[in-house]
Amino acid sequence: IYQTKNTDKMTILTKLQIDMIRSKISGLGFFVPENVVSNDDLSKLMDTSNDWISERTGIKNRRWVGDKKLTTSLMGTYAAEKAIADAGIDKNDIDFIIFSTLSPDYYFPGSGVLLQRNLGIKEIGALDVRNQCSGFIYGLSIADQYIKSGMYKNILLVGSEIHSGGLDKSTKGRSVSVIFGDGAGAAIISSTKSENGILSTHLHSEGKYAEELAVIKPATTHWIDKIKSDQNDESFWPYMNGNFVFKNAVVRFEQVIKEGLEHSNLNLEDISLLIPHQANLRISQFIQKKLKLSDSQVFNNIMKYGNTTAASIPIALTEAYQSNLKKKNDIVVLAAFGSGFTWGSAVIKW
Fold first, then answer.
1. Which long-range contacts (C-beta less than 8 Å, at least 24 apart) are formed by 204-207?
2. Helix (H, G, I), strand (E, B), or coil: what is residue 334?
3. 3-state DSSP call for residue 77?
4. Closest alpha carbon to 273 in 311, 325, 318, 309
5. Which end is more exposed in the chain, N or C (fewer Cβ atoms within 10 Å of the end residue's Cβ)?
6. Could you give the maximum distance between any two Cα atoms of the chain, in Å?
7. From the candidates 39, 133, 154, 280, which is the catalytic residue?
8. What is the pLDDT of residue 226?
9. Mean pLDDT across the stretch 34-44?
10. pLDDT per residue over 284-336, tens digit each?
């Protein structure tokens, strides 16, 4: 440093200061609708049973919006308020909003600006992430980069979904509709000089399989006039090639978890808690067995809430946190796989 010009010294010093900044999760919260829908309840709507659903998915109950006033952004707001309180900050300490969802209030604008309005906070930036099941991990990675660059100090990250209004609740659609639930989770991502925090994030995609898990219409090429004329078009309902998705998910989950650990010079034995996206309990159990993790090392709550897509990881992370399943210096790994296909992981030193 002393052999460089003053301007060079300032550049190097600034870089060293930035390198010291790490992002951490400083607050968590979640919200789910009060309306509990059991497998037995679904058997009254379609040809299914508690045993059929439980054996294939591990799900016992899910929450579906019963109050028509609840929206994706409003549920996200309730979760965000809890996360803000948990972080011990004022809502106006938030510098930026990231909102992950596949079920926004409107086709446009995105739900991020609606969340900003609901919270009544200053005119900060709001970014919407459309990466479905991987949405929270993608949002976390974005927040991590913003914090580490020194651009922001406190970022509000929300994952919120209302699936229930867009599901085919007939026998024809049961393979998809029994899986999904409504809910929201939120996290405050803050800057820290501590060695604890987010160690790394890793993101991937493989678009050639985009249509294997998708809602194809409505689309800009199939808009209002065609929607009205195609009353029997089944592509308005979510489609999932279940077996194909399962086979890809278990491979990508394992790969991206190991990628994160290797990047941070950690081993599988170092994992204190793995919180996978709650897609299907059978996927989580397969990954647990493949990685030789104990029951205490893997957290699942899909049994209670179903698959809440972008909300599943923050809901599970909050429940694990509130249950004191994580302690200081624990290595917590988050991982997700879903539509796109997209997948990702985050390694955190708690």
1. 204/252, 204/256, 204/342, 204/343, 204/344, 205/340, 205/341, 205/342, 205/343, 206/340, 206/341, 206/342, 207/340, 207/341
2. strand
3. helix
4. 325
5. N
6. 78
7. 133
8. 78
9. 97
10. 999 999 999 999 999 999 999 999 999 999 999 999 999 999 999 999 999 99
The gap from C-alpha 17 to its chain's centroid, in whole angstroms, comes to: 31
H helices of the chain, where?
6-20, 39-42, 50-57, 72-87, 111-119, 135-148, 174-177, 224-229, 242-263, 281-291, 302-305, 312-322
Going by C-alpha positions, the residue among 195, 114, 118, 127 that lies closest to residue 155 is 127
Q: How far is CA 257 from CA 72, 251, 290, 318, in A?
A: 29, 10, 12, 20
Q: What are the backbone dihedrals phi and psi of residue 165, each rounded to the nearest 5 degrees, phi first?
A: -75, -10
Residue 302 CA, chain-centre distance (Å), reads: 13
Return mean pLDDT, the chain: 93
Within 10 Å of residue 107's Cβ, how many Cβ atoms? 8
Q: What are phi and psi of 247, to 5 degrees?
A: -65, -40
Return the exposure string of 208-218: e unless at least 16 CB atoms fall within 10 Å of the residue's CB, then b: ebeebbbebbe
Query: Can 307 be counted among the known catalytic residues?
Result: yes
**Quick one: CA dihedral 303, 307, 311, 314, positive or negative?**
positive
pLDDT at 20 over 90: no
Q: Is 274 helix (H, G, I), strand (E, B) or coil?
A: strand
Which residues contact residue 290 at a Cβ distance below 8 angstroms, ignoring those fewer than 6 apart? 250, 254
The Cα 92–Cα 98 span in angstroms is: 15
Residue among 39, 202, 277, 300 flagged as catalytic: 277
Alpha-carbon span 40 to 48, nearest angstrom = 8
Sign of CA dihedral 110, 184, 39, 325: positive
Residues forming beta bridges with residue 166, ordered by sequence position: none
Annotation says 277 is catalytic: yes
The pLDDT of residue 251: 97
How is residue 308 written in tokens?
Answer: 């809440």
* Alpha carbon distances (Å) from 120 to 29, 94, 107, 189, 217: 18, 12, 22, 19, 34
